[in-house]
Design goal:
By secondary structure, the protein is mainly alpha-helical. It contains 7 helices and 2 strands, in the order H-H-H-H-H-E-E-H-H. Strands 1-2 form a two-stranded antiparallel ribbon.
Length: 190
């Protein structure tokens, strides 16, 4: 029961302060990893890959993954389902509460210059959170930490550059690039 309360607390806090969408939850997940030991930074990379490959928002998918994974160890399959539900609901609950409160206030004050300043200030904050998350993901994907040195994972780097170029040039649906990356990983045993 304590584990479920802790999951609720950690993901409620994440949902309350992760402004900018699903990728903005990543810095909170890295902190949660260090603080709780529920998962490793390598697990976060796997969570991102799974979350990006499945339907639904990335933050919600990752919270379900963490809740399931964490509770599975302690309570087995049924407890894991409860853990996934607790983590997911606690992540989205702050958004629902805040949106309800803010929507009433914004309707009254949407023309206010102060409200415009608040939104102006929030945009760089959410961009910085997403950028920090992207850098952390890139570090995990493109670098290999060896005992005393850091090596570049050239295969992943080359694949990343090719996929990035493909996204910019061809503008195909993201699932195509995910499928290509998965296939390359299987074929070349990344």
């Amino acid at each position: 029961m304590i584990l479920y309360l802790r999951l609720f607390y950690e993901f409620f806090k994440t949902g309350l302060f992760a402004i900018g969408g699903g990728l903005a939850t990543l810095p909170f997940l890295y902190e949660m990893s260090e603080k709780t030991g529920w998962f490793t930074t390598h697990d976060i990379s796997n969570m991102i890959a799974i979350s990006e490959s499945t339907p639904g928002p990335i933050g919600v998918n990752m919270s379900a993954y963490v809740g399931f994974h964490t509770a599975y160890t302690a309570f087995g399959p049924l407890g894991a389902i409860v853990g996934a539900i607790v983590a997911t609901l606690s992540l989205v609950m702050p958004s629902i509460i805040v949106i309800e409160i803010i929507s009433g206030i914004l309707n009254k004050f949407k023309e206010s210059q102060i409200v415009q300043y608040v939104f102006y200030g929030l945009r760089p904050a959410s961009s910085a959170l997403v950028l920090a998350s992207g850098m952390a993901i890139a570090k995990t994907a493109f670098l290999i930490e060896n005992a005393d040195k850091i090596l570049v994972n050239y295969r992943s780097l080359i694949l990343g550059v090719i996929l990035f170029a493909g996204i910019k040039i061809f503008k195909l649906h993201p699932i195509i690039y995910i499928a290509i990356a998965a296939a390359v990983g299987i074929i070349f045993k990344f």
